[in-house]
Amino acid sequence: MKPTKIIPLQKISLDGQLLGVNQAATGCGSDSSGCGTTSRTKNVSPEIWEKIKNHPCFSEEAHHHFARIHVAVAPACNIQCNYCNRKFDCSNESRPGVVSEKISPEQAARKVLVVASKVPQLSVVGIAGPGDALANAEKTFRTFELIAQQAPDLKFCLSTNGLRLPEYVDEILKYNIEHVTITINMVDAKIGQHIYPWIFFKNKRWTGIEASQILHEQQMKGLEMLSDRGILCKINSVMIPGINDNHLVEVNKAVHKRGAFLHNIMPLISAPEHGTVFGLKGTPSPSAQELKALQDRCEGRINMMRHCRQCRADAVGMLGEDFGSDFSQEKLEAIESSYDPALHRMYVEKVEGLRKEQTAAEMKGLSDLSNIDSNISILLAVATKSEGRVNQHFGHAKEFQIYEASRSGVKFIGHRRVDLYCQGGYDNEEVLPKTIRAINDCHAVLVAKIGACPREELMKVGIEPVENLAFEFIEPAAMAYFKSYLERIASGETAHQTRADAQLRQGAFVTAA
Amino acid sequence: MAYKIDASLCSGCSACEIECPNAAIREKGSAFAINPKKCTECVGHFDEPQCVAVCPGNKTVVVDDSVPRYKA
Q1: Whether the Cβ atoms of residue A197 and residue A80 lie closer than 8 Å to each other
Q2: Statement: residue A250 has pLDDT above 50
Q3: What is the nearest CA distance from B69 to chain A, expressed in angstroms?
Q4: What is the C-alpha to C-alpha distance for residues A488 and A92, in angstroms, rounded to an integer?
Q5: Is A347 among the domain residues?
Q6: Distance CA A233, CA A260 (A)
Q7: In terms of residue numbers, what domain contains A69?
Q8: Cβ neighbours around A10 below 10 Å, total
Q9: From B12, B15, B53, residue closest to A135, measured CB to CB
Q10: b vs e for B12-30, b when ≥16 Cβ sit within 10 Å of the residue's Cβ?
Q11: Strands of the A79-80 sheet, one edge to the other
């Protein structure tokens, strides 16, 4: 197996001892849950924080620390979406509804155990297709049943279009599935008819407005039922320019009213080579600014998810990474599983220690910003590989995290995928312009290190490369940069300029360099 | 008559297998296939053949003319 950034966790030694953890920070001994942890996500109560703090999709903060595995046991679907083409094997794609191999519940359970024994960061098992989890209910619940018997520490979640959600709410509770994602693209069948050509419901194919009306009613009913029972619901919405972009504000209000916890608005993926109806029709994907503007309009009612990577139904690893190909059925046969939940618990403890350090650093950063009265806000790109720190080389980044800094603090607003600039020691000159387009709306890029050539090119286009905050936690580092930026503006050393739009990258997500 | 699946168009998603009231559909290689001896065209079960109604492919499940018409 090739070395990856998630698998050999240096902080856990071979004999299972934790190394390098700040002991002062983990002052409450081995039982980290006894410390009364406080929420590291805004607008979230301590009870909810307990439920989301190790879930990379439900908490942006958690996605710096924890990994997930999707097992592709659910190939069938009961609706047709115009943004989906469920061709099965497109190995260079990273998008929902696509997998390299479908597997049985028994194969899935073994795969989860093997991955859990190699990846202490693994905290969540999800079933997200490649079809619909509840259109394959028997396989979906059988999978959870098998895994629960062998790895009770893992959290379960599933993703569904909602069509059959109401009838499976009891099963969801029975199998202790605490997180459910429902894809809701409309709350008005007149709009729905342009997204869903048909659904299969109660042994019949429905088309037109009728199909969308049934789907809508089932989605709302299912969401209400789950919310009433304390299941955390995330709503995924695909932003389809010209079809439902403005309408998603109404969707946001409707799901908020029915108790949804998190809303994830994702850009339409519509490259023509994917062969979807929207792709072939030439329906455009939104730009980075269009997506952010819509997310900002929806902000305030429920939490907005902005760290979604639109991953595959068989993704393995941290968000933004996919090591699924390292755990194919063929390779799994050769790997022995020796799952030890203690390893994961130790990792969780280490993260709790890090979080305390991080919170303290952020508090300090915020108090440094407290006497600023400027209305300027800027975007910053950050290269990070783990722990929520600025700790990646510019040339090694496969994606940049984007943060918005203003006097009220630092807010994560998204990520931008790029090609590797540095490949095998050689810089790739063709890649740099694309990288610049991806982060063109940012004033600076915070990295662990950057080469002389890309440094110069970035400066030319007005993006400042910043190395002096290397290895700091991201939020305090961003606050420190912002503070120094404002000081330079105030002293007249630099003039503040607004930046242009950036391009959202689609298509191939290549894991191997 | 029965229904048959064009293997070259089948994505192997298994939706038809799940819906078939006669358990007449099984995976065969990378595609699914209907056992014509078990297929009842859903007569007596449903208003429309379930495999045809649920299949995401275009003209992937079609009438198999080589088999005599099913009699309920």
Answers
A1: yes
A2: yes
A3: 22
A4: 44
A5: no
A6: 5
A7: 32-332
A8: 7
A9: B15
A10: bbbbbbbbbeeebbeeeee
A11: A79-80, A198-201, A204-207
ipTM: 0.93
Mean pLDDT across A144-156: 91
**pTM: predicted TM-score of the whole model, two decimal places:** 0.82
Question: Is A100 an interface residue toward B (CB < 8 Å)?
Answer: no
Q: What's the pLDDT band for A439 if we cut at 50, 70, 90?
A: very high
Residues of B in Cβ contact (< 8 Å) with A200: 15, 19, 53-54
SS3 at position A410: strand
- pLDDT value for A509: 39
pLDDT of residue A96: 61
pLDDT at A26 over 90: no
Please tell me the predicted confidence (pLDDT) of residue A446: 96
CA distance A207 to chain B (A): 11
Closest CA to A453 of A433, A472, A439, A424: A433
Whether A144 shows a pLDDT value over 50: the answer reads yes
**Do B11 and A200 make contact, defined as CB atoms within 8 angstroms?**
no
Section B39-47 average pLDDT: 92
User: In angstroms, rounded to a whole number, what is the distance separating the alpha carbons of residues A495 and A298?
Assistant: 32
Asked if the peptide bond before residue A130 counts as cis, ω within 30 degrees of 0, the response is yes
Res A294 pLDDT > 80: yes
Are A89 and A233 contained in the same domain?
Answer: yes
Mapped onto helix, strand or coil, the DSSP state of residue A228 is: helix
Residue of chain B whose alpha carbon sits nearest to that of A129: B13
- Structure tokens given for A317: 């690893």
Q: From 3.30.428.10, 3.30.70.20, 3.10.620.30, 3.30.160.270, which CATH number describes the B2-64 domain?
A: 3.30.70.20
> Which residues on B lie below 8 Å from A87 (Cβ)?
11
